[in-house]
Amino acid sequence: MSCRNSYFLLLLALFIISQAHTMLASDTEAGLGYIQFTCKNTSEYDLCVSTLQSDPTSMTADLKGLLTNVLRATTAYGADVATKVTELSKTDQDPFLMQCYTDCSERYIDAVDQIDDSVAALDSKGFDDVVAWVNAAIADVQTCEAGFLQKPGYTSAIKDQNYI
Predict the structure, then answer these.
(1) How far is CA 10 from CA 27, 70, 97, 149, 150, in A?
(2) Which of 63, 82, 115, 157 sees the fewest Cβ atoms within 10 Å?
(3) What is the full DSSP assignment across 18-38?
(4) pLDDT 10s digits, 33-45
(5) With 80 as the cut, is the pLDDT of residue 66 above it?
(6) What is the three-class DSSP state of 104?
């Protein structure tokens, strides 16, 4: 998949939730119409479209289906990042960076669990819970990156994967 960033995908999920009333009231058709309508107001139109189109079910999906697809893509990407930072924590020799990567791995594992919880909440129409879980996952991603800023001169090897 051409996803570059879990943070963007989480923001996309929040955007879809916030625009649900507009989209449901519009004449926009499911599938490509929903995808284009959803993505046209994002900061990363091409990434948004490619992410949603990478799942064939998006072409016939309604709003809930698109949101589910975004959340699932975010889960997969977050799990990949968690694996990468776990590997970094084992190979880096700097104690500070090792701790940062260990913390990030835990944060990403938590974020993936929270996104899984948001999918379950979406399935049971707990829309406020979806927003809460997605916001919690965003906070975990932001906290991961903030850990590297605790010491001057340090940067994260996964910074580009956290933010666009």
Answers:
(1) 26, 8, 25, 22, 25
(2) 157
(3) HTHHHHHHS-PPTTHHHHHHH
(4) 778 877 887 778 8
(5) yes
(6) helix
Give CA torsion, residues 7, 9, 13, 14, to 10 deg: 30
First CA to last CA distance, the chain: 16
pLDDT at 117 over 90: yes
Tell me the pLDDT band of 4, cut-offs 50, 70 and 90: very low
- Residue 142 corresponds to which tokens in the numbers above? 């932001």
Amino acid, res. 79: A
Instruction: Supply 55's token pair.
Output: 């799942």
Q: Which amino acid, one-letter code, is at 139?
A: A
Residues 13 and 135: their CA atoms lie apart, in Å, by 10
Q: Count the alpha carbons within 13 Å of 25 in the hemisphere toward its beta carbon.
A: 4
What are the b/e assignments for 66-100, b being 16+ CB within 10 Å? bbbbbbbbbbebbbbbbebbbebbeebeeeebeeb
Contact 113, 69 (CB under 8 A): no
